[in-house]
């Protein structure tokens, strides 16, 4: 046997294997560092608050998040089909309709809907029976709370406001941040707000089932943030910022 031929060849193969292992390790490190999720959501004032919460939670896990804004219903469908990695925020009830989504059971936002009507003085309480409401199409919490026959869907909040102003509906349902943008800090002449909210719900982030292991980590990160009061502080800070600069938040 020619040892001078065998050993150099073996050394060469060993070097190649070592080089491949090093390349694989470097690629793995790069993949972890550049980890990014695409989360779909809607372009509303409340969405921006939830984005701030999730940005911080995912940053703690070393994951960058890209938020893609699409119509409300489409966001859920994309996340459920795996076209995005998850949905920004929904009620627990709405998420039950989508079997490929895993709810992260720590609220990232709390939605409150008030009714706005024409006139100078609104009642403190509004009985929705027999009334028609304009609202942003795809807001499942509204669609699942009120009869379909009472709802008039709008493509955006401004269209919902126009329906109210023209007398096509009895009231408009919108959250306070969105109302601030629509009506201005001092309100709008001829439009009043019913004092008592009509709908209040917690909203939850969700991930596609392919991210089941990550969902556990995200829930833990959010739970720790909630326990330290961080989520409540983010809500307060974001609400204050958005309320102070409604024109910039559009």
Radius of gyration: 25 Å
- Helix/strand-derived category reads alpha/beta
Which CATH top level class of the largest domain fits?
Answer: Alpha Beta
In the CATH scheme, what's the topology name of the largest domain?
A: D-Maltodextrin-Binding Protein, domain 2
- For the record, the CATH architecture of the largest domain stands as 3-Layer(aba) Sandwich
* Succession of helices and strands: HEHEHEHEEEHEHEHEEHH
Which shape, going by the Cα principal axes? elongated
Distance between the termini: 80 Å
Largest sheet properties: 10 strands, mixed
Mean pLDDT: 86
Supply the CATH superfamily name of the largest domain.
Periplasmic binding protein-like II
Number of helices: 9
Please provide the count of β strands.
10
Task: Pick out the low-confidence regions.
Answer: 24-34, 246-250
Total separate domains: 2
Which strand-content bin applies to the residues?
15-25%
Helix content: 40-55%
């Amino acid at each position: 046997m020619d040892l001078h031929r065998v050993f150099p060849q073996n050394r060469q193969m060993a070097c190649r294997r070592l080089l491949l292992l090093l390349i694989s390790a470097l690629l793995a490190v790069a993949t972890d560092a550049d980890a990014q999720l695409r989360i779909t959501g809607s372009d509303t004032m409340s969405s921006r608050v939830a984005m701030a919460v999730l940005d911080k939670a995912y940053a703690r896990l070393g994951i960058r998040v890209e938020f893609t804004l699409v119509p409300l219903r489409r966001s859920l469908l994309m996340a459920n089909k795996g076209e995005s990695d998850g949905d920004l925020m929904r009620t627990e009830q709405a998420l039950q309709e989508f079997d490929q989504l895993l709810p992260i059971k720590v609220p990232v936002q709390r939605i409150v809907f008030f009714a706005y009507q024409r006139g100078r003085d609104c009642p403190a309480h509004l009985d929705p029976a027999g009334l028609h409401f304009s609202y942003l199409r795809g807001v499942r919490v509204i669609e699942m709370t009120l009869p379909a026959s009472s709802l008039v869907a709008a493509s955006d909040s401004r269209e919902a406001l126009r329906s109210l102003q023209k007398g096509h509906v009895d009231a408009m349902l919108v959250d306070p941040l969105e109302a601030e943008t629509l009506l201005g800090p001092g309100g709008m002449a001829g439009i009043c707000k019913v004092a008592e909210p009509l709908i209040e719900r917690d909203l939850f982030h969700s991930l596609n089932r392919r991210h089941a292991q990550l969902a556990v980590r995200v829930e833990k990160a959010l739970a720790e943030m909630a326990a330290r009061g961080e989520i409540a502080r983010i809500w307060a800070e974001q609400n204050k910022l958005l309320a102070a600069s409604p024109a910039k938040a559009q």
